[in-house]
C-alpha cells in the first residue's frame, strides 16, 4: 500500500516517468488548447510534467490569427499586429465558424478582420477572401534555346509578383494554423509529433467536432481525442501536482472559464480523479471582449483629455479610418496592460505610438480603477454562477474549489468579486488562495487546458494495440457508454463514538469515507488515529449512511462590516450605522441509516512519550476501507494498522 | 491497492458508557442514481482504471489490483531493459571514495581517469558511448552550479581532517573534465591505456619461471590471465589465448607464433617529462624532447623484451611442448622401424613433411622421366627426318647420275 496520496489507481502512463528517464522517452504528443482568440500548446518536459511551451515568437498565448501580406503569410501574434494596417487580409475568430454553414453564420456588419464570404464554388460554405501577391514564375534559364538572341548576358530578372486573390475555407485556415502549432511543438521536442489532444468547447456540435477533426487530419495531425474544455481542466486538476498536499481528492469544483466572447461555467464533482459534470452553462452574452471595450474607451477618453484630439471608439465611426486604426492599436496595446494588471498590484501602463493624428499616448490604470471598469462583467459572471448553483441545487457553501480558465481568469478582481457575491465559504480553494497563479504556477489559468490536453494525450498514447487496449482507447471517445455510471446518493462513513462537546448531536466524530455523487463501483481507504483507554483498549465504530445539509445561523454583528469591495465604499458608510445580520453557514450531518457496528478490542497501541498534551495517552492508527459494489453492496473493513492488528469486517448486502 | 487518505483526525477514547447499537439486518444503503444519471468525463488515469474495472474485470477490485500489479512488474522489467540496454549501457554507478573526491586537478597526470568517471570496472573496454554517459552522470552530480549552497555540512570529520571536502570547490569537477578530455581523445586515451595504473599493478604480479616451478603453480591458470592482460595492446584482434592442456599442435604453434611476432600499440608518451614551461630556450626544449624520445624508445624496447621473455618463459614451461616433442619422437621411431603400429600415432609434422618430400621427389622423378621420354621421342623424330633427307638426297643423286649416263 502506497502511502503517497494518488489517484484511484495509477495508470501505466509515462506521463509521470521517474526522473531518471532519458529525454528520448518523452511521449511525442502535444496538447492543444484551441480557443477562438488564443491557442496554447503543451508538451512533456524532461521533468515529466506537462508544460505550456512558447512558440518561435516566444508567445505562450498564441493568437488565433492568420494574415496575408504580399507574398508572406503570418501566423499567430505577428498576424494580430497586422490588424492595424492590413485588417482586410487578416483572418481571426475562425474557430467558432468551423463546421458551420454559411447561412448559419450571423452576418455582423462590424468586423475589423477579413470578412466571411460565401465560397464561390462550394455551396453554403463560409470562406475568407484575401489579397495576396503571387510569386511570378521564375524566368527561363539563359541557356534555354528560345530562338531569340539574348539582349544581354545578364540573367533575366524575375518579374514582379502578380496580385491575386486567394479563397480560403474555414477548414483550410484551421489546418494552416494547427499545423503551425504542431510544428512549434515538434521543434521544441526535436522529434515528430505522433498524436494530439485538442480541446473543444462543450457547446461544439458533432458537426463542428467532425470539422475540427477533419481540419486537424488535413494538417497531418493524428487526433487522439477531442476533449471538452471541462475535461481538459479536470485532467489538470486531478493530477497529484495540482492537488499538492492540502487539497482533498473528493471535492466539488467550479470551473469558471471566461473567454473573450463567452463565459462557460461548469460544476464538477471530482472523486479521486474521477470527475463528472453536475451542471454547466454557457453564456455567450458575457465575455472578456466587453472588458476590452471598456478599457479601450477608458484609454480613448484619457487620450482625448490629455491631447485634446477627439477619438471615438467602440464602435469607431465607419467613416473615420483613423479612429478605426486607433481602436485596433489600442486593442493590441491593452493585452499588455491586462497582463500587467493580473501580475502585479501596481499600476499598469498602456503605450501607443501615434495613436491618432501623430500623437503618442501613454496612460496608466491601477487595479482599483480597472476593477471598477470591469465591475459589470464581474457582476454578470457572479450572477451566472449563482444561477448555475441554484439550478444544480448545490449550495455555494458546498463548493470546495474554484478553478479559473483563460486570461481573464488571472484577474484577481474577478476572484475577489466571485467569492464575495456568490457566497462561497471561507477557505474555499482557489488558485489565488493557493498562490499558484502568477509565475507560471500550476494554477495559471492560461495554461490549464493545454496542459490537461497534454496529460490526456500521453495517457491515450500509452495504450497499446492489443484488442483490450483498443477497447479502452475507444472508450475515450465522447458519449461512449462506459462513461455512463451509477452514483451514490448519500454519503457513507464511520462514526467513532465519543463524548466531545462539539459532537453532541451525533454522539461521536463523523468521518465521511464515500461521499455522495461518487461513481460506482468505488473503493476508498481512510486512515486516522484513535485514542484508546489504556485498560480496556476498546475500539468501537459505527457505519452510517448520512445526509448532509447546511444550517444557516444568523449572527448579529455590531462591529463595522468588513469592506465588501473597494469600489463601493460610499455605500458601506451608510450601512455601518446600524448593526448588520450576517448569515453564517454550517455543514450539518443527519444520521439516516445504521449499516453496521463494530465493538472490539485493539491489539496494538502506542503510548505517547514526552511532555506534549497527548503525553501518556495510548493511540492506535485505524484504516477503514469501504468498497461499494455496482449493485449497492457495501464491504467495510476496519484494520488496525501494523503487524498483528485487529481486523473487523461489516458486510451490507446489495439492494 | 487503493490510495490511502490520511486524515488529520484523532478521536478521544470510547466512553465507558457507550453501548454498541444493534444493527437492523435489513439496513441497506439508499438506492444509487441509476446508470446514465451521470456521465464521467473521459479524462485522467482514474477514468482509465474505471474503464478497466468495468470493461475487463467485472467490477472486481481484487482482479484489477492483480492486473495492475502484473502490469507494473512488466513495465518495470521493460524499463530495466531500457536502463541497461539503452540509456546506461552498463555504466552503472560506482562508489566515490573520499580519496577520489579529494583529487587535485593539478596532478591530473597521476589520476586514474577511469576511476574518476566511475568506469573502473570497464577500463580500456569502455566504449565512447559509455564514456559519454559516465561523464554526463558525473557532471550532473558534481557540477559547481549544483554544489553551490549545499556546503552546510562543513563540520563533518573529513572537513576537519583537512581533506579537500569543500563542496563549493570545483576541484573534482575539474578532474572529471580532464578525465573526459583524455578518454575522448583517441590518441591521449591510447597513451593513458598504455600506462594504465591498474595494468601496471597487475604487471608487477606476474610470477617468474622460478616462482612457478618452485610453487608448482598451474601453468594455464597462472599464465592464461597474464596473456589476456597483454592482449589488449595488440593491433591485431582477436588475440589467440593460451588455450588448455589438450590444445592441438597447430593451436599451440599458432599461439607462440603470434606472441613472438606481437604487434603492440603500447607507447610511453604519457610518462614524458614536461618541457619546462617557464623557459623559452629552444635548446632546453629540444634537449627535453630528445631525452623523452630516448626514454620512450628505451621503455618500448624494455616492454618488448619483457613480453618476449614472458613468451620464452611460457614456452619453456609449457607442458604441451613436451607432449608434442614426445609425439614427434614416437612418430620418428615408428617410421624408422618401418612398422605401422596398429593404432597409428598422430601424423607429426615431420612425417607429413617427409611424405610431402617423398611425393615431391616422386613427382620430380616422374617429370624427369617424362622429360627424358620426350627428348627421346624428339631425337627419334629428328633421326627419322634425317634418314628421309638422306634417302631423298641419295635418290636425287641416283637420278642425276642416270641422266648423265
From TrEMBL, chain A:
<dbReference type="InterPro" id="IPR043129">
    <property type="entry name" value="ATPase_NBD"/>
</dbReference>
<dbReference type="GO" id="GO:0005524">
    <property type="term" value="F:ATP binding"/>
</dbReference>
<dbReference type="GO" id="GO:0005634">
    <property type="term" value="C:nucleus"/>
</dbReference>
<feature type="region of interest" description="Disordered">
    <location>
        <begin position="135"/>
        <end position="162"/>
    </location>
</feature>
<feature type="region of interest" description="Disordered">
    <location>
        <begin position="1"/>
        <end position="27"/>
    </location>
</feature>
<protein>
    <recommendedName>
        <fullName>Actin-like ATPase domain-containing protein</fullName>
    </recommendedName>
</protein>
<dbReference type="Pfam" id="PF00012">
    <property type="entry name" value="HSP70"/>
</dbReference>
<dbReference type="InterPro" id="IPR013126">
    <property type="entry name" value="Hsp_70_fam"/>
</dbReference>
<dbReference type="GO" id="GO:0005829">
    <property type="term" value="C:cytosol"/>
</dbReference>
<feature type="region of interest" description="Disordered">
    <location>
        <begin position="554"/>
        <end position="580"/>
    </location>
</feature>
<dbReference type="GO" id="GO:0140662">
    <property type="term" value="F:ATP-dependent protein folding chaperone"/>
</dbReference>
<feature type="compositionally biased region" description="Acidic residues">
    <location>
        <begin position="565"/>
        <end position="580"/>
    </location>
</feature>
<keyword id="KW-0067">ATP-binding</keyword>
<feature type="compositionally biased region" description="Polar residues">
    <location>
        <begin position="1"/>
        <end position="12"/>
    </location>
</feature>
<keyword id="KW-0547">Nucleotide-binding</keyword>
TrEMBL record, chain B:
<feature type="compositionally biased region" description="Basic and acidic residues">
    <location>
        <begin position="349"/>
        <end position="375"/>
    </location>
</feature>
<feature type="region of interest" description="Disordered">
    <location>
        <begin position="327"/>
        <end position="405"/>
    </location>
</feature>
<feature type="region of interest" description="Disordered">
    <location>
        <begin position="277"/>
        <end position="305"/>
    </location>
</feature>
<dbReference type="Pfam" id="PF00226">
    <property type="entry name" value="DnaJ"/>
</dbReference>
<dbReference type="GO" id="GO:0043022">
    <property type="term" value="F:ribosome binding"/>
</dbReference>
<dbReference type="InterPro" id="IPR036869">
    <property type="entry name" value="J_dom_sf"/>
</dbReference>
<dbReference type="InterPro" id="IPR001623">
    <property type="entry name" value="DnaJ_domain"/>
</dbReference>
<dbReference type="InterPro" id="IPR044634">
    <property type="entry name" value="Zuotin/DnaJC2"/>
</dbReference>
<dbReference type="InterPro" id="IPR054076">
    <property type="entry name" value="ZUO1-like_ZHD"/>
</dbReference>
<protein>
    <recommendedName>
        <fullName>J domain-containing protein</fullName>
    </recommendedName>
</protein>
<dbReference type="GO" id="GO:0005829">
    <property type="term" value="C:cytosol"/>
</dbReference>
<feature type="region of interest" description="Disordered">
    <location>
        <begin position="1"/>
        <end position="37"/>
    </location>
</feature>
<dbReference type="GO" id="GO:0006450">
    <property type="term" value="P:regulation of translational fidelity"/>
</dbReference>
<dbReference type="Pfam" id="PF21884">
    <property type="entry name" value="ZUO1-like_ZHD"/>
</dbReference>
<dbReference type="GO" id="GO:0051083">
    <property type="term" value="P:'de novo' cotranslational protein folding"/>
</dbReference>
<feature type="domain" description="J">
    <location>
        <begin position="112"/>
        <end position="196"/>
    </location>
</feature>
<feature type="compositionally biased region" description="Polar residues">
    <location>
        <begin position="19"/>
        <end position="29"/>
    </location>
</feature>
<dbReference type="GO" id="GO:0030544">
    <property type="term" value="F:Hsp70 protein binding"/>
</dbReference>
<dbReference type="InterPro" id="IPR018253">
    <property type="entry name" value="DnaJ_domain_CS"/>
</dbReference>
